[in-house]
Structures
1.
Amino acid sequence: MKNILVIGATGQIGSELTMELRKRYGGDHVVAGYIPGAAPCGKLKESGPSAIVDVTDAASIEVVIKEHGIDTIYNMAALLSVVAESKPVLAWKIGIDGLWNVLEIARAYHCSVFTPSSIGSFGPETPHMMTPQDTIQRPRTMYGVTKVTTELLSDYYYHKYGVDTRSVRFPGIISNVTPPGGGTTDYAVDIYYAAVRGEKFVCPIKEGTLMDMMYMPDALNASISLMEADPTRLMHRNSFNIAAMSFAPETIYTSICKQMPQFKMVYDVDPLKQSIADSWPDSMDDTCARQEWDWRPSYNLESMTTDMLEKLRNKLFNKAALVSE
């Protein structure tokens, strides 16, 4: 049985990943690592052990590795794209200095490591349609620079020291559980909240801007499936393109309007978010992931929209009912 540490377990993806891992491996086998001031609460706190783990403090990681006999690390600590651009020094400290700490400890204690990359690792010179697995990566944001460095450093530790490093390039992730927190693709979450609340949505991304997206259940399954994959099949490791759907703001708006015809959207483009979005792929070719570890998404835009609207209605209306009581 695996003993797993999730670093950044209270973050946007980490919180849901921790719960999914506990569902699959048992609560006692998955430690939720968090930084002071961001302690787990609710089900995340009650369903398994937790510990303070600051990715920039190697000693805090090592203590948990030894105490819990950890053999697998999901390193989810990072700043999101827009936040990273406003705090580049901190983005590097968490994303790269922190990764160095994780990899050194993994080398010493023979741990496998998952550290996600992103579509942000590509840049303006990258082919934008069906972006190949292996292609030019010259991002112009600090977020993207840290992601490319993540891929290279993880590969280095695999080839140099034999550390079992694996990674996927996440597209934009859409969740009905965790609220958005400073990502370029956050509009694709915010739009569903606005629709369910009966509000007009103000879109910060211009019409016609295609970006790869994925529903959170598929993102979680991809992360875990890759770590469970037969290593002898993996020609690539850091990092696999994974894809599920590609759409522009007007496409997701139309999808929602099929179920909520009165919903309205207007545009007020955010120059920073738009510039980042323009540098990212319109769609990614995930053939290698499909061939090397049988990756397949379960959701498309229509099925995701149906599920998002249903889950958010239950979440927002039930919460409002509880408050009124």
Note: The first helix runs from residue 14 to 25.
2.
Amino acid sequence: MNNLINKAAPIFFVCVVFVFSLGLKRPVHSTDLTAQVSKIFSQNCISAGCHSGRFPPLELNLEADKFQVSLLDVSSRQVPDLKLVDTINPEKSYILMKLRGDVTITGKPMPYERAPLSSGEIEAIEKWILGFEGLEISEQPETLKAQTQQERRFTKPAFWGTRLMNLPTDRSIGKKDFLFRISHRFIPAAGKGYDFFYGFDGPASIYFSLGYGINDTLSITLGRSNVLKELELSLKWVFLEQEKLSLPLSAFLYLGGGLTTLRQEDRSTFSSENTQFIAQLGLTYQFSNSFSILLVPSYVSNTNYEKPNTEDTLALGLGGRLRLVDDLSLVAEWVPVLSGYQMNSSGWGLGLEWKIGGHVFQIFALNSYGLPTAQYLPGGDLRFSENDFRFGFSIFRWF
């Protein structure tokens, strides 16, 4: 009997140690693995207009300093019963289902409109998720515990485009992002009828611009119009943010200069008659995800290019956005001239805005054809009272 006990004791001891070690076993979360996962998201998921910035799709920000807070034990917006990363049941993590293209997911697989992740990349993300299994909040890495996710009152910005139609908005380009914009104003009025295909057959004023986000609130943009071959260089600074600082409104400064490069025999290109100074103060109030208003007191010097004596324009821009469904909105603006040079009537516009990924599309009816600030601020050549207007559109592309 003693011999049997002596033989069984080591086996029993090994079993006890094994079982006990299982109970104590905790997953180890590798810093290197976290960095690898961060790199995978950065390379595949946070291009401009995707899961980055202040208002990412589905409120999912996958930037390096935000992806863990956005994922861990956060319910999916598409399937609320599932968590993006489920630290209790990792195999049920919805983000893995999206990355693998599971047939049960809602919407399209991730990354959207890009090549699927490799099996090695998905395996790395799966290992990273498994590393959180069984970890209490207090046991999570210090770098993660230090992150906080600000409660946002709004999940949509006040305006999707950096322009409402002509007026600047408080929308920033975003840190280290580029923004390309192309805008058209068909010059013939819609009232000219079918012979001009309601204005679409005629020539158009065209504006191209390229902007760069120096940081999240400061950006610089250079644009050119074919009308008078005018250049505009501008700097926009959003110095107050309604939601971020719990203030009653957002505010920004738009400062810049214009240069008319159309050759004239009686003046040089860089003469004072060809230059303009631009100063605008923008105030935005966002009532909800669906409704926002905009107020833009504006001043531009030397707005009457045709006359040798310079004339300035002081105007007050008013605008608003009403979201109709998803990211399709109704936009409107009115720019009454307070003093100085004015065209036939104050500028106005009414249109639709649609946000898709990294693009914002706008189509509208309006009375002005100018696109640089010095050209649209004095108003338009068509009168609303005569039911006359022209069509225009803009396309914004972040990258």
Note: The chain has two domains: 2-145, 178-398.
